[in-house]
Amino acid sequence: MKRYTKERLWDALVSCIAIFLGLIIVFPVIYCILGAFKTPAEFASPVLLPKSFAYLENFRNALHQAPLLRYMVNSFITAFAGSFIRLAMAVCAAFALTHYDFRGKKLCFFFLLGTMMMPGDTLLMANYATVSRLGLLNSYLGMIIVSFVSASQMFLLRQKFLSFPKALRHAAMLDGCGDLRYLLTILLPLCRGTLTTLFVQSFLSLWNAYLWPLMVTASAPDMRTIMVGITKLNSWEDTNYELVLAGVTISLIPSFVLFALMRRNLNKDNTDGSLNG
Amino acid sequence: MKLNAKQQKNLKILGFLAPILIFSILFVYYPFCRNLINSLYAVSDKGELLRFVGLDNFRSVFSRRDFRQFFANTLLLTAINVPVTLFLTILLGRLAMKKRRLSPVYETMFALPMSISMSAAAMIFKSMFSPTLGCVNAWLGLKLGWFESRDTALYTCVILTVWMGIGFDYLLFQSAFRGIPREILEAADLDGTGFFTRLFKIELPLISPTVFYVLCTNAVLALMTSGPMILITQGGPSRSTGTLMYMMYASGFGSSNYSLAAVVSLVAFCLTFGLTLLSFLFERKKVFYQ
Amino acid sequence: MKKLFSLVLVLSLLLSGCGGAAPAETAPVQTAAPETTEAAATEPVLGSAPVNLTFWHSASDEAGVLMDKYIAEFNASNPYGITVKGIYQGQYSDATTLLKTLLSAENYSELPDVMQMDATGKMAYVNSGKAFTTQDALAAYPQPGFLEDYLPTALTNWQFAGTQLGLPFATSTTVTYYNADLLSAAGWDKAPDTFADISALYADLTAAGRTEKVLQTIPNSPTLANWLGQLGSYLVNNRNGADGVATALDCVDSGALETFLTAWKAMYDSGALLNEGSSSDLFISGGVAVMTGSSSNVHSILTKVDGAFEVGVAPYLRVNADAAYGAGVSGSCVVMFDSGDSLRKAAAWEFVKYLTSAEVQADFAAGTGYIPAHKGAMDTAVYQDLIAQYPQYAVAYQQLMDTPETITSVTVGPSKDFYYAVMQGVSDMLEYDQTPAEAAEILEDELTMLLEDYLRSNS
What we know:
The structure holds three protein chains of three kinds.
Chain A: H1 2-35, H2 40-43, H3 57-65, H4 68-99, H5 105-114, H6 120-133, H7 140-144, H8 151-162, H9 166-174, H10 179-190, H11 192-207, H12 211-216, H13 226-231, H14 241-266
Helix pairs in contact in A: 3-14, 4-8, 4-11, 11-14
Chain B: H1 5-37, E1 41-43, E2 49-52, H2 56-62, H3 65-95, H4 103-111, H5 118-128, H6 135-140, H7 153-178, H8 182-190, H9 195-206, H10 208-223, H11 227-233, H12 244-253, H13 258-286
Antiparallel strand pairs in B: 1-2
Chain C: H1 2-31, H2 35-38, E1 51-57, H3 61-77, E2 82-88, H4 92-104, E3 114-118, H5 122-127, E4 131-132, H6 134-140, H7 152-156, E5 159-160, E6 163-164, E7 167-179, H8 180-185, H9 195-207, E8 215-216, H10 221-230, H11 237-241, H12 256-269, E9 273-274, H13 280-284, E10 290-294, H14 298-305, E11 311-314, E12 329-337, H15 342-355, H16 358-368, H17 381-389, H18 392-402, H19 415-431, H20 436-457
Parallel strand pairs in C: 1-2, 1-3, 8-9
Antiparallel strand pairs in C: 3-12, 4-12, 5-6, 7-10, 7-11, 7-12
Helix pairs in contact in C: 3-16, 9-12, 12-20, 16-17, 19-20
């Protein structure tokens, strides 16, 4: 009994520390949301809280100046499809690199890892030419085709796959379970947490993409993504924080929803631990 | 046609690897290598290759004062960013390891920075850290020019990049800590192992694959930092925050100097790739896979 | 699955094949341009058939709303059946990146008929091989005295090697903002005019027991060019790169650079100057008495200050009492591209004329604070009302009229490097206490190296 209360006290203390740290970490996000309710004059002072949360002028202007909702639909389509394909390719590659032995395996791994180290700016022009020749300009596929390869995802999944004991695969093989079935029915469900984390991360990064989707949709303004919309809120020579932050706040709503939906899945990696050891 | 077992296996491997290989050649290696050719040529600002100049471009870039400064800045930024991120995210992951009643609240808080784009984050930080109108100086009672002073600007940029990276890495550590088999921890408890011994001797070795991953990817990302510089400091004040990637963006593509861009990107690539190879040597010794 | 991948592989092989063939196909198009004037007799006239135009712009925030309004008005009111499709292409620099990329991929079909661009796009436009300049348009559709309706300084900003590339759309200049309350605390009833005034104002402020500084800024290449221009010198030769590619510095032999640096250092040594990148934050919070900034910011600065003190606007600071008044122009222009279709080109010209007309320019000025580049805008009721309400705007217009020709914006290949090299050079002089002569020498070396580097690949 005594130990139990001590543990509860300890938990409460840790929770408090965690919440405190959490507040510091999340503060810029809160700052952004609060800023969306401020008037330009209020922004010219270090006071954190806006005078009134009923001041919705920024949101109204943001929605008036750029078709943010329409752009959000585009962002959703590209981010969802792009993340899915990206993840699928990474899973396949990681599986091959961890479950087979073949010549050139190391080379192949480092070859893929090398793609992480090539800065996007250097790829822009040549990729535009390629996508243009493929006839994919002004299409959703063109907007995401260059981001299918994610070496970091492949790398993380490799780390994950390596942490499963070899006995698991042998047992499955003895049961007559083929490679593809083993991957889909045994391995992936065990990695649900990692897969969700990767999907969320990938979704958010594609959601926030700006320059490439802008360039590819030069003639199709209806296919623009949310970040283009937010840039359109920026004024030319002076930063108008309040309006842009209102736009960012609107763009955060889907991310919050995604977090809420995925959070339960995030921690689903072999929680019972029965597979280890 | 019947395939023997070996052929079948090879075909399977090909099937798994072909998609990612094709796309990485088509959309990463091919454009990158095309770009690298520029490093050996005099290239006009229209992008035409004028004449072969051998290593002249390398010589002229290496002799530039800003290049040397930016190279040093890049290393310094990485040297701070990587350990700080690692420490913070392990701390957060460990804090959140056990499920508690308030878990959903702080777990969401820790992960939320993920959802902010670099451009939005830059704007938020610039406003928060404004010397006169920002709340940070107001609360801490300071008059610091965070992004404005050459002594602090690089460190403020590190704060921003660390913040951007926290969410994802924290999630990885949390799930790694939670993935540690319960029986191992229970056994440690029964032995009466102290907290720090348990952390360093049992838990961290068990999650070393994740530690290794975070270390590697963070080093790569840190070496390729350019966002805060493009969006806030423009490499200043007095070049104190410029990085290699920023130089490639501003002096290279921004000024249509394609040879310079190619030289700098090649240098950055070699630096990053070399570091990654080194860490994989380390992996063989220290990282523990079950 | 596997079939798909082999398909992709084949496609990629095809691509590399196409790569070689593409330039040959497009070559005849470039030479086709001169024929259009010969064919003038058989050309269809505007209004004979509906025309669709594409217009790329970078107008965001309030300017974006106005731009949409002008496009809609033009589409509804033009008698020729022209329909303009306006597309926002991100910030100016993004639109320039897009333009460069398009050109390097030789994907000319994606080019717009009309594009709004700022200085970052100027050289890409000149080099595009697809430019249909204002000069060309005036040759094809003669209209004597047409250019005389525009402010000369605004026009020269969009010239290269004597060719008028486009017409100014959004025009602004740099002016001095001052905190009238602080000035009167120091016993001043007029704005500081020269660097020496800044030092004197600081002395008076300190004497009155105030602790504020007067000015916070680090000069960059455009502002340096302004100040050198006041002293009758250019930063680089070929009239700051307007007559042709700049090959050397112009301000060293004339001694203007050292004169400027000496005056700048004296201002710093007096204590009046903060050697930090300027932002409006400090001025808005009352921390400095004076700020230099774009004339188009009057409205936003008044909104942010929100009556906390009285904001005055004065002509741009001068280096010394002998210097000329004035500052260069910044902003954006509208240019046209050669679609090869004479009807579309004629329609594009109509649209460009409309966007830069007195009425649109006056309305745009009233909505955003930019200076109307069309002289006729001065007489419109809209602009008169604006000046009556905000007399601050009149200063910028007058300054633009007075600015001498030596003050023209700098066009160099490595523009970004120039920008930051100047900042570093001047800031280091103060930080490390170099003499103006030393600092001038370091700057000369650095800037000359940048120019030579550029010339090595582009001459």
